[in-house]
Specification:
The protein is built from four helices and five strands. By secondary structure, it is of the alpha+beta class. The chain has a five-stranded antiparallel β-sheet with strand order 1-2-3-5-4. It starts with a helix and ends with a helix. The relative contact order is 0.12.
Length: about 180
C-alpha cells in the first residue's frame, strides 16, 4: 500500500496529536489517582479520630467555585505539601496547614514567582498588546503571605490545561526544593 505525500503528512499529524492526547490523559489519570490517594489517606486518618475532636476542628473553607483539588506531593516520599484548587479561570495554591513555607527561601520567588508566573504574565501582556488576547483575559497572580509565611497564591486566567500542568509541575518542584531547604 502506497501513500501520497499529503496522506503521509496527515498520518504524521494524527500520530503527533494522538501522542499529545495520550500524555494529557496520562497526566490527568495521575492527578486523579493522587486526589484519590489523598482522599483515602484523609478518610483513614480521620476515621481514627474521636468524634469530639472532629467537632472542634475547623476545616479549611474552600470556595464552591473550585471544581477540582490537585494535591502537590513530594515524589521521594509522597509527603503532601499543598493543594491547587482549580476552577474554570482561577487557581488557588494553598500549602497544607502543618507546613510553613517561607517565601524568602529560594527558589520560591527567584524561580516560581519571577520566572514562571511573571513569564506567563509577560506572554499574555504581549498577546494583549498585539490584540490577540482581551485585557480581562491576561494572566495575573497574587501571593498572599504573612511575615514571609506563604498563605496562598491566587492565579487568575491561567486559560488552558497546558498552563495548569506547567503550574502544577513547577509548583511541585519549587515546594519540594523549599521543603528540603527548610528540613536542612
Amino acid at each position: 500500500m502506497s501513500f501520497s505525500d499529503e496522506e503521509l503528512k496527515r498520518l504524521a499529524e494524527i500520530k503527533v496529536w494522538l501522542e499529545e492526547r495520550i500524555k494529557g490523559l496520562e497526566a490527568e489519570l495521575n492527578r486523579t489517582k493522587d486526589l484519590l490517594a489523598f482522599i483515602d489517606s484523609s478518610l483513614k486518618r480521620k476515621s481514627f479520630v474521636q468524634a469530639s475532636e472532629l467537632v472542634q476542628e475547623k476545616p479549611q473553607r474552600l470556595d464552591l467555585e473550585y471544581q477540582e483539588a490537585i494535591p502537590l506531593k513530594r515524589s521521594k516520599d509522597g509527603k503532601l505539601m499543598a493543594h491547587i484548587y482549580v476552577s474554570q479561570k482561577r487557581l488557588a495554591l494553598v500549602p497544607v496547614s502543618d507546613l510553613t513555607f517561607q517565601t524568602t527561601i529560594p527558589p520560591f520567588k527567584s524561580f516560581f514567582v519571577n520566572k514562571v508566573l511573571e513569564g506567563m504574565k509577560s506572554k499574555d501582556l504581549e498577546l494583549s498588546k498585539s490584540g490577540k488576547l482581551k485585557e480581562d483575559e491576561v494572566f495575573s497572580y497574587t501571593v498572599e503571605e504573612e511575615n514571609n509565611k506563604l498563605l496562598k497564591v491566587i492565579i487568575e486566567n491561567y486559560r488552558d490545561k497546558s498552563r495548569l500542568n506547567e503550574i502544577v509541575n513547577t509548583a511541585t518542584w519549587t515546594f519540594t526544593r523549599v521543603l528540603e531547604k527548610m528540613e536542612g
